[in-house]
Amino acid sequence: MTGPLQSPHPMIGRTISHYRVIERLGAGGMGVVYKAEDTRLGRLVAIKLLSDELLKDRTAMERFQREARAASALNHPNICTIHEVDEVDGTPFLVMELLEGETLRECLDRGPLAAEKLLDAAIELADALATAHEARIIHRDLKPANLFLTRLGHVKILDFGLAKVLSERSDLSGDATQARDLTAHQTTVGTIAYMSPEQARAEPLDARTDLFSLGAVLYELATGTRPFGAPTTALTFDRILHHQPPAPASALAPVIMKALQKDRELRYQTAADIRADLKRLKHDSGAPTLAIAAHAARSRKWLAGMAVIAVIVAVAAVMLWRARRTAPPAAGGPTTVAVLPFANLSGNRDRDYLRLALPDELITILSHNHSLAVRPFALSRRFTGDVDPQQTGRTLSVANVITGHYRDSGGRVDITLESIDVEKNNVLWRDSIDVEAEDLIAMREQLAGRIRGGLLPLLRAAGSPLDANRPRNDEAYALHLRAAAMSQDSQPNAEALAMLERAVALDPGYAPAWSALSLRAYLAAEYGEGGAAAYNRAEETAARALKIDPDLLDASRRLSQLQVEKGDLQGAYRQAKELVRQRPESGDAHFVLAYVLRYTGLLNESAAECETARSLDPSNKSFRSCALTFLLLGNIPRARQFAQLDAGSEWHRGVESYILLREGKPDAILQQGNRLGAIMRRWWPLFEAHMNNRPAAEQARLAIDAKNATLAVRDSEPPYYTAEILAFCRQDKEALDLLRAAVEQGYCAYPAMDHDPAFAHLRSNPDFQRIRQSAIDCQARFLRFRDGS
Questions:
Q1: Phi first, then psi: what are they for 44, rounded to 5°?
Q2: In which band, very low, low, confident or very high, does the pLDDT at 112 lie, cut at 50, 70 and 90?
Q3: Which of 65, 54, 84, 200 is nearest to 140 (CA)?
Q4: 32 bridge partner residues
Q5: Percent of the chain at pLDDT above 90?
Q6: How confident is the model at residue 506 (pLDDT cuts 50, 70, 90)?
Q7: What are all long-range contacts of 246-249, with beta carbons under 8 Å and residues at least 24 apart?
Q8: For the whole model, what pTM was predicted?
Q9: Is pLDDT larger for residue 91 or for residue 213?
Q10: Checking phi first, is residue 347 left (phi over 0); if not, alpha (psi -120 to 50) or beta?
Q11: Peptide bond preceding 751 in cis form (omega within 30 of 0)
C-alpha cells in the first residue's frame, strides 16, 4: 500500500497488505470499516482503519495495539473474530470476520425481541462475556449497536475498541486499580445509557460493569425501552445512579433486575452466574405441559381421549429411556463432516454451477467412507456467501467443515480446499489443484486423490475405501454436475431430470448419476406432475444405482422410503436393515429403519431408532419425520422437539396443526391460516368451513374433495392424518374411507388408531372395528415375515 490512509474516500479498490478493499461499510468513533477480500485465503473480511484523532495520540495508539492483540486472542462463536492486527506504512488496522445480518439496534427499531429469541440471545451473550472475562478482558461499551444478530440467528459481540485488560494482580470482581485502559485512566468512557453506576462515576472498573450493561441491554430487548432513558445526559446519569426501573413483564425479569443492581456487591458477580440462571430458566420454560383447551361441546370427548394418551406417554417414556440406554453415544460415533458451497472468485459466471456441484461431488466421495458421517448437501447448501465456518459447523453439529473456492482463468480452474476443525477453529488441512477447465473428470480424480492422501488421515477416517465408481464420459459427467447445482423447484427440476436422463444414457455405469436421477424423479412425483410413472422411475433408478454401487447411502435411503410408501413393507424393511448393517454408526441408516417401522405400527421400536438416529446426528433436519412416530405414541413434547428440526417450514406448520388437534386447540390451527404444506392444504377448506359453521352440504362436498385429493398421493400415511381431520369435522364416512385406504395400502395403524382422540367417537362403529382388525392383520403379516427371516 502506498500513500497516507487519512481520507476514507480513496480506499475503494486499493490493497492494504494482502487485503483488497471492496466497499465502505460504515464509520464510528474508532475509525472507518471496509469490506475487503483476503487475496491469500480468498475470503471476504472487514477491515477497520483507525480514525485520524486516534492516529495522532501515540500513547493511545500503543494502548490500542496492546488491547487489540489481547482481544484478538478471544475465540468464541458469539464474539466477532479478529483475524489479524497489523500495520502498513505506520498505520495500524484490524482485520475481522465479515458478518451478514443486522445489529440489535436495528432489530429494536421493529420492537422488542420475542421471548424465545431473547432468552437464546441472553445465554449467548452471557457465555461470550464469561469467555472474555476469563481472559481478563472487559468490554465497557455493551449496547445494542455493538451486538450483531447474524442471518443464522446467533448474536455476536462487536467492537472491543473500548475494552480494557485487567492486570494479573487485579481480580475480575474486586480491586481494579491496576487496570490498563485504552483511554486515559479515570475518564468516563462508553455509551451513557448503558453505563454501570461505577462507570458513570468514572471509578475503577472490573468485570461487573459489563454485567450491569448486559442487564440494561436485555431490559431494552425485552421491553423496547431503555431502563434509564431520559431526554438529557444529566438526567440519564441521575437515573443510572439513583432510580430503579420497573421490572419488565418478561420471564427474564429476575435475571435482568439482579444484573441492574446499583451496588456491584449485590449484582451478579460473574457472567458465568448469569449464564447458569438463564440456562436453568430455559430448561424450566421447556418443561412439557399438555394443556387442553375446550372446544364447544366436544371438549369432554377430547379430554377422555387425552386421558388415554397420558397412559401412553408414560409407557413411551419408559421405552424411550431404555432406547437411550442402548443407543450408541454420539461421542463414540463417526467423525462428522459438512461441506459448504464453494466461492467463485472469478468473473466467469459460466462456471458458477461449480459452487454447488463441487461440494455435492465431494459429499458423494466422502460418503463412501464409513468412518465419516457426512451431512447431506440439502442441509449445508443454504450456507452460501461469507459464512463463519465455525459457527456453521456448530449449527450443523459437526466436528469438521470443508470449504473451498475456485478461480477460472485462461482455460484452467484453480481450486482450493480447506478443512476447519470446528472446536479449535483451526485450519486442519489445506490443498489446491489446478486443472483444465473442460477436463471435469480429471478434476474429480485429483480432488479424490488429495482427499485420500491428505484429509482422511487427519480425520482418522480409516477402514473404508473411497468410492470405486468413477465417471467415464466427459459430457455425461458435465451434465451430472450441472444438474446437481439446479434448484428443486418444478421447472429447474424438470430440466435437471432431462440432463440426468441424457447423462445415464451416455454413461450407464456411473451410479451417482442414477441416484441423482432417482431424486429428481421422486421430486417430480411428489411436487410436480410426474404421477405414478415418476414414482416408478424413482424406484427403478435408485435400484439401478445400488446395483452398480451398493454403498450409495442416498440411493439406499430413497429406495427404502419408496418401497414403504407404496406398501411394500417387507422389501422396505429388508433394505433398511441392510443399510443399518452396513452403516451401524449412521444416523441416516437408523432413521430409515425408524421410518419403515412406523408404517408397520411398531411405534416403540420406531421411537428407539429415532432416538438412536438423533444421538448420532443431533441436528439432521431430515429426521423431522420422527415427530409423527411420537405423535402416534401420544408423546407430544418429543414430537414437537423432532418437528423443530425443520422449524418454520410448511411441513413443520402442518405437523404442528396435528399436534394442536390432539391438544384440543383447533382454534390455534385456524389462526395459522392456509400456510400448510401441499398435503395439509387438501383438507384446509373443509377444516375452515367446519370451524366457521358453514352449511352441512358444503362441508360434505369439501370432505369428498379432501378425500379424493389425498388418495391421489402414492403414500399410505397421508390418508391416516387426513382421516383425523375429517373425523374431527364429523365427516365420519369419508374419514373411515381414508382410514381403510391407509391400512389397505400398507399403513398398519395399530395400535395408534386405538388411542387417537380424533377417532374416539368412531370406535364403536362396526366399520371402524373391521378396519382396526385389518390393521392388526397387516402388522401380524409383517411380524410373521420378520420372524421367518
A1: -90, 140
A2: very high
A3: 200
A4: 27, 49
A5: 36
A6: very high
A7: 248/219, 248/222, 248/223, 249/223
A8: 0.53
A9: 213
A10: alpha
A11: yes
Tell me the torsion sign for CA atoms 639, 643, 648, 650: negative
Burial class (CB in 10 A: 0-12, 13-18, 19+), 784: exposed
Query: Helix, strand, coil % (nearest 5) of the chain?
Result: 55, 15, 35
For the chain, report the end-to-end CA distance as a whole number of angstroms.
74
Round to whole Å and give the CA distance between 446 and 432: 9
- Residue 715's alpha-carbon distances to 573, 692, 737, in angstroms, are 16, 30, 15
Give residue 39's pLDDT band: very low, low, confident or very high (50, 70, 90): confident
User: 419 by DSSP, 3-state: which?
Assistant: strand
Reported as a pLDDT band with limits 50, 70 and 90, residue 331 is very low
Per-residue pLDDT of 182-228, as tens digits, reads 333 333 444 788 999 999 888 888 999 999 999 999 999 999 999 99
167-181, 288-302, 667-681: segment of lowest average pLDDT: 288-302
CA distances from 268 to 131, 253, 281 (A): 16, 14, 16
Q: What band does 28 get if pLDDT is binned at 50, 70 and 90?
A: low
- The single residue listed with the C-alpha cell 461487573 is 208
Rg from Cα positions in the chain: 30
Closest CA to 481 of 529, 447, 450: 447
Average pLDDT of 299-327? Answer: 39
Distance CA 560, CA 266 (A): 61
Tell me the per-residue pLDDT of 525-579, one tens digit each, with 9 for 90 and over.
Answer: 877 777 888 889 999 999 999 999 888 888 888 898 889 988 999 999 998 998 8
Of 565, 525, 573, whose CA–CA distance to 745 is shortest?
A: 565
User: Distance between CA atoms of 307 and 279, rounded to whole angstroms?
Assistant: 32
Q: Are 316 and 288 in contact (CB under 8 A)?
A: no
How far apart (Å, rounded) are the C-alpha atoms in residues 475 and 473?
Answer: 6
- 124 burial via Cβ count (<10 Å: 0-12, 13-18, 19+): buried
Q: How many other C-beta atoms are found inside a 10 Å radius of the C-beta of residue 367? A: 25
> Residue 567: left (phi > 0), alpha (psi -120 to 50), or beta?
left
- What string of H, E and C letters represents the secondary structure of 449-479? HHHHHHHHHHCCCCCCCCCCCCCCCHHHHHH
pLDDT greater than 70 at residue 268: yes
Amino acid identity for residue 503 in this structure: A
CA nearest neighbour of 398 among 621, 590, 617, 124: 617
In this structure, what are the phi and psi dihedrals at residue 94, rounded to the nearest 5 degrees? -105, 140
Candidates 624, 623, 593; CA nearest to 606 is: 593
In Å, the largest CA–CA distance within the chain is 92
Triad 204, 207, 212: Cα angle to 5°: 95
The answer to whether the beta carbons of residues 622 and 616 sit under 8 Å apart is no
Q: What is the pLDDT of residue 347?
A: 63
Considering only CA atoms, which of 569, 604, 609 is closest in space to residue 589?
609
Q: Is 467 left (phi over 0), alpha (psi -120 to 50) or beta?
A: beta
For residue 142, CA distances in Å to 130, 207, 613 come to: 14, 12, 41
Q: What is the DSSP letter of 79?
A: B
Residue 133 has pLDDT above 80, yes or no: yes
Cα–Cα distance for residue pair 236/550, rounded to 1 Å: 70
* Dihedral (CA of 148, 150, 156, 158) sign: negative
Determine what percent of the chain is predicted with pLDDT higher than 70.
Answer: 83
Q: Quick one: pLDDT at residue 160?
A: 67
pLDDT of 602 strictly over 90: yes
Phi/psi class of residue 138: alpha, beta or left (left: φ > 0; alpha: ψ in -120 to 50)? beta
Alpha-carbon gap, residue 19 to 469, rounded angstroms: 42
- The one-letter amino acid at 365: I
